[in-house]
Amino acid sequence: MGDIARFILNILFTLFGAVLLLRVWLQMARMPPFNTVSQTVFKVTDWLVIPLRRVLGSRGGIDWACVFAAWLCAVVFLFATVAVSGISPLDFFPEALWIAVVMVLKWAVNLVMWITLLMVIMSWVNPSAPAMPVLIALTDPLLAPIRRVMPSLGGLDLAPIVLFILTQVALMVIARIGLPFLGM
């Protein structure tokens, strides 16, 4: 039963953490708050972000309340996972704070990878989908520098593949950073 509980906790907290980070990304991309993607993200996260924003505010164009909420989500996930395993969460309290930072980085890189993959698939299947402008607005700042370096191959855009590879490398580096704190 412990494996099932950890699996469910992982899915729930990873999805919620990703939605919190997507909120930050949408705001950094200056997406209008009235589009359906933004509205959904705001509705799912407002209950946590709005109270935190009153305390933390936002500086430098980054919604620190969302970033802190994602980190807090990672901390709660770690404590819940450890508690389900039958270990006292207080046994690894200081390490959990750093592991949560690494988890948020992992969630952010995974979010970039999945949004890019979704954008590519949607561009093949339904390029006129209502979510397409949002996906393009989110991924273009990441793909534009790659497109400047990559040679043009006619109608074939290899920039998403390069970004996908870069995200995989970043995930490997993040995993390596987190290993000392996971006791591996």
Automatic annotation (TrEMBL):
Coiled coil: none annotated. The keyword Transmembrane applies. InterPro entries: CCB3/YggT (IPR003425). The chain crosses the membrane at residues 7-26, 62-84, 96-125, 158-179. Keywords: Membrane, Transmembrane, Transmembrane helix. It comes from the Bacteria. GO terms for cellular component: membrane. This is YggT family protein.
